[in-house]
Design brief:
The complex is a heterodimer of chains A (158) and B (102).
Chain A lengths: L1 H34 L4 H5 L3 H9 L5 E2 L3 E4 L3 E2 L5 E7 L4 E8 L6 E7 L6 E6 L5 E9 L2 E11 L7
Parallel strand pairs in A: 1-9, 3-9
Antiparallel strand pairs in A: 2-4, 4-7, 5-6, 5-8, 8-9
Chain B lengths: L3 E8 L2 E8 L22 E8 L2 E8 L8 E7 L5 E8 L4 E7 L2
Antiparallel strand pairs in B: 1-2, 2-5, 3-4, 3-6, 6-7
The chains are: A alpha+beta (158), B mainly beta (102).
Chain lengths: 158, 102
Amino acid sequence: MNTNLKRRVFLKGSVAASTIGVAVAAGLVTPSAVLAAWPEKAFTSKKIPDAMSEIFGSDVSENSEDVKITAPPIAENGSTVSITIESMIPNTEMMAILAAANGTPLVATFTPGEGTKAYARTRIKLGKSGDVIAVAKAGGKLYSNRAGVKVTIGGCGG
Amino acid sequence: MASIKLKAKAKKDIVSVKCLINHPMETGLRKVKETGKLVPAHYITEVTCTKGDATLLSSNWSGGVSANPYLEFHYAGAKGDEITLSWKDNKGGSDTKTAKVR
């Protein structure tokens, strides 16, 4: 009787273990499938020109006032810096936010669909003081504008 | 898992979509002070907003976006539109939320 019980426990245990195994295997498959569409190289590039080439196919951009970037001149907390980017250039296909002082500069890219304004507002992390660059792609050309953000640690506002 | 707060409001014929997502957005570079071990990367990589079959905005993110990310964008639409926002992260997590434009 006793051995029988143990045998049952053992069998139950092994069934449970194999189910977990299958679940893990399935779980391992999904992240790579998700990442397939995500430009990993661009987001892991450590230099701005590399990141821009990966995402836009070119690192040459024209400085333009038609690309608007709104950032606070002084950020007291680098972990949430509110950034607004907007492109006045017609037919903007894609926009990106790059933070020059971050280890991996490319923060986010935005691809507006039809009827969507070339406008995005989000909050980003800044490791230290530096320029935040907005890049917009329209008609095969790149336009950019930048804003300097000073990150103060300690919140003295200086 | 309700990780998304989605609000869309129409003003004339422009709809402003605002959303807040609850997510840690770990870059994978931060260390736990006590142990000195790196916190594994866990951040949203893709955010997509659609209206029916039409994509309103698709966005790729890195760990450089703040924790509990906020996103706002505008599109030409009207009251009563039904929009769906979804995200995916680097660990295979995802969430979706649908809201009606008010």
